[in-house]
Amino acid sequence: MSIVNKARQAYNKLFPAPVLKDFPNENLPWIDQKNPDIEGFVKRFPKALHLPYDLTEKLHFWKENGYVILENVISEDLIDAYLADVEELIEKHKEYDITIRIDRPEYNKHPVMKVRDVPREIIEGQYIKVMDFHNASVAGKKLMLHKAIVSFLEAIFNEKVVAMQSLTFLYGSQQETHQDFPYVVPQVPSHLAASWIALEDVKPGSGELHYYVGSHKIPKFNWGNGIFFNGESTKNPTDFGKYLSAECERLGLEKKTLLLKKGDVLIWHAALAHGGEPILDDNLTRKSYVCHYSSALGYFRHRHDLVNEPVRHNMNGADVFADPKLTSYENSFKRGENVN
């Protein structure tokens, strides 16, 4: 355990945080507050006139439903550059310390590993997430901080956008229904959103993403020690998934599955209940790229170094931090340099 984490634990024992039942009102994003003036905001938002969609309509939809879909906003060239980087990582995996998560029974004791220590057939299979490959890939950074995504998130937060992390999938995740905020916690927890970028056309039976429309408004789940999942929680992710599914069903919320085309983007609220459908056809991939975001207020230190000022990469007015633990790999996959 690092000195920083030990100090944090000691502090928390002396001054325990209150058990939260919801996000504190004082730092909610403006769009999550009661009766936000969307029309007034759009009139004052400098980028509103230059977007390829009606921002007022999108913000009302977000407020009501907890997500938006941006169609055909990312070029195939940029996606193909990123996929080529991923393929190179797989082919030369023994050379890299890039981290992956393996959600397979035989890896239960050590689900997070370096890609160099995992057989290629596992890396290319189901239940795999490549973690934070954007640190190494220029194309990954450009996807993550694409202007279409950044512009909408900047409106949501009404602040500078900061990207926190990324997950790359070759197959459907098959995850239980969940919300992001109990697991991905920026320094201001309510300042959190995510994007799901289709790296290929999504086909039925491939383990499509599912989500419950309007589920970002349901009461927060109590893990036994508040709304965040940690080592002191008395409930588990299966309890969480059962609660979400039952609550969404009780409220009559519509369950949708996502069939996006390559270059389409789903952006969702941190509290939108979503998950992965079972893969019905093992021959079908579902290549996708998931990124989590906060604001400059909500995430101002890299999670691997809470003390020092991070090294920042800026694109389209947004930041992503270099990983202080993997500095030798930063931007080492360069295919994306001349692609937009």
From TrEMBL:
Its cofactor is Fe(2+). The keyword Transport does not apply. It holds the Pfam family PhyH. Keywords: Dioxygenase, Oxidoreductase. SUPFAM superfamilies: Clavaminate synthase-like. GO terms for molecular function: 2-oxoglutarate-dependent dioxygenase activity; iron ion binding. This is Phytanoyl-CoA dioxygenase.
